[in-house]
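Researcher: Here's a chain I'd like modeled. Treat it as a single chain, no partners, no ligands.
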Amino acid sequence: MSSEPLLIVTGLSGAGKTETMKALEDLGYFCIDNLPPSLLTQLSQLPALAADSHERIAIAMDVRGRSMFTDLFAALDVLRSDGVLHKILFLDCADDLLVRRYSETRRRHPVREGHSLYEQIAAERRLLSKVRERADLVLDTTRINPRELKIRLGRLVLNQEVSIGIDIDVMSFGFKHGVPLDADLMFDVRFLPNPYYDTELRPLTGLDKPVADYIFLQPETNLFIDEICPLIERWIPLHAASGKARLTIAIGCTGGQHRSVAIAECVSKRLTKHFTHVLPFHRDLQKKL
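Model: Modeled as a single isolated chain. Structure tokens:
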């Protein structure tokens, strides 16, 4: 049987179950969302399978319906009798913040008892009181942003400090092939002289030394690099602090073969001096001009 307990995530609606599951995925959990309690016992073999693949499992469950409480507690009893290790993580949150979230999204509260949101939240707290009492872990998400949530979950669930980094992709591309929709920051280097018009350089790419030498002999190229790299370096930590796991920096030229490739390689090397996870990627390098 797995040495890692099955993690069952539940709690108040609006307390951040979706963000919690995203954070758990980033922490290495295999996540199953919105599983009915009656199906929980059918997954009793998952922890053993997860042990073979060295994965942890988290299951998010919505137990607001009255009929589901009996199913949940019965399922937990079966897991215990079968020797399946499990923990319940209950997500709590302050009423004022829950009211604000529902007011901003204009969603209906799932519990219809009472007329105001405060009354409906109070009714849900009463419904979930026994689940909260049985929880092994309680996390109040009132003042936690996505980045802090991941850190808190690491401490609470894994009992370890979690290092929050950010993966940085430095992408070259050609505007003639379309703008990358997943770019967070985009720079246009079509103002630089184009090696394409040199018949000896045309068949080569920005990964080849003659092309790179040609591009970096232009004073505008080095000025461009010297100006954008400090800008990028200044803002990457703020993207990471906001909870962003990946940042894509796109650098485009006409065809994505020469200028953007050489500059993406250079920018990537510069960023590697300050950040750990930096990867150059050349989207259009294999496409014909």
